[in-house]
UniProtKB/TrEMBL annotation:
One Pfam family, short name: Esterase
Gene3D superfamilies the UniProt entry points to: alpha/beta hydrolase (3.40.50.1820), Immunoglobulins (2.60.40.10)
Name this polypeptide is given: Enterochelin esterase
InterPro entries in the record: AB_hydrolase_fold, Esterase-like, Ig-like_fold, Ig_E-set, Mycobacterial_A85_antigen
């Protein structure tokens, strides 16, 4: 027998009033997770209240309804187990609209664009390896600088050396686009410390590289690719004991950073052995030019269209992930077969999440342990 939702029980309670509403909100907070349903709450005076989100398949904005005779607003949505959704609330009072994080929900996610409230479905938990573990030996993170002829400027970046770094050994190298954001918003140093310490992932050196002008440099920009392949990698190979072979090098990035990783590898085949791309902006057109992404996506579409017309295999292995709730799920799914038919081994995974840093953080154990398995089974080909 299907259980009645808590919000419907409240609606039908004969003693419904301010005291009962206060007790209800204090007990449940927001959102209320019941099986495959999430009920969002807001308390206050307004002409209209909405849930704002970027979940493909749900109306945006999602209108909330006022519980008759109270100042409590509610909206119930489907939320499959294991889901994770970021959202905000929006109120309209006359002609004034205001958007803000859910005051009844202390759970927040952060990004370069600010913070959002988090709705975690039944069964979702932040992975243990994404949280500080006192027993995990910490690696070392240092800030470095080098002069780039390709970019015509000084470029700063961070270098991660694993705990117990030994200069007589040789380490694989991973180059991470949006490096500062991966460190700040995806806890990547913590992730590396934990996964390396617990032998899920081989000890590696990681270069975290931030962009100067992301929308210009990341969609198939020749100077950026030249900097990564012809300047950064050789410089790091001189500085550090790195495996000087494609199998020991990986490019990583999310969204536009995924395009930067792929396009750099395509421009310089044979330099890198693997790619790790998350929610990559693999937007393309088969008919016409209306891709729907706006001018910023024009160079992306031009690159992906050209690649689809003549696909190549610039690396041997590629890990891809994408959230089911984000608009990029369709082009990412479509490109898996293109990459495989070009001759690359592709591991592709989806999850019930959106286009955000926590999603990309949560996929790292699966990605890194596949690309760089722990020492007990680590073999370079």
């Amino acid at each position: 027998m299907r259980r009645k939702l808590q919000i419907n029980r409240l609606r039908e309670d004969p003693s419904l009033g301010p005291e009962l509403v206060s007790s209800f909100v204090g007990k449940h907070g927001s959102p209320i997770i019941e099986g495959a349903h999430a009920t969002f709450l807001f308390r206050g005076e307004a002409d209209e209240v909405f849930v704002r989100h970027r979940v493909v398949g749900l109306p945006d904005p999602l209108p909330m309804k006022r519980i008759a005779g109270t100042d409590l607003w509610a909206a119930t949505s489907d939320l499959p187990p294991g889901s994770r959704v970021e959202y905000q609330l929006e109120t309209r009072r006359g002609d004034h609209y205001e958007r803000f994080n859910d005051p009844l929900n202390p759970r927040l996610a952060h990004s370069p664009m600010g913070s959002s409230s988090v709705c975690a479905g039944e069964g979702y938990e932040v992975p243990w390896w994404a949280q500080h573990q006192p027993d995990s030996r910490p690696g070392e993170l240092t800030e470095e600088r080098m002069r780039s002829r390709a970019l015509r400027r000084e470029q700063h970046f961070w270098v991660y050396r694993p705990a117990r770094f030994n200069p007589v050994l040789s380490y694989p190298l991973m180059v991470v686009h949006d490096g500062g954001d991966y460190l700040q918003f995806a806890a990547m140093k913590t992730v590396l410390d934990n996964l390396i310490h617990h032998l899920d992932v081989a000890p590696m050196v990681v270069a975290f590289v931030p962009p100067h002008d992301r929308l210009r440099e990341y969609p198939n920009y020749a100077p950026h690719a030249r900097f990564i392949a012809r300047e950064l990698v050789p410089t790091l190979t001189e500085w550090l004991p790195l495996l000087d072979a494609p199998a020991g090098r990986c490019l990583m990035g999310s969204s536009f950073g995924g395009i930067a990783s792929l396009s750099t590898a395509v421009r310089y085949p044979g330099i890198f052995g693997s790619l790790l791309i998350q929610s990559a902006s693999l937007v393309f057109t088969d008919i016409g030019q209306d891709h729907g992404g706006g001018p910023a996506f024009d160079p992306v579409v031009k690159f992906v269209n050209k690649y689809r017309a003549r696909p190549t295999a610039p690396v041997r292995r590629m890990y891809m992930s994408c959230g089911i709730y984000e608009p990029l799920i369709t082009p990412n799914r479509s490109m898996v077969s293109v990459f495989r038919e070009a001759g690359m081994t592709v591991r592709y995974e989806e999850d019930r999440d959106g286009h955000n840093w926590d999603n990309w953080r949560d996929r790292m154990q699966s990605a890194l342990s596949w690309l760089y398995p722990g020492p007990q089974k680590y073999v370079y080909e």
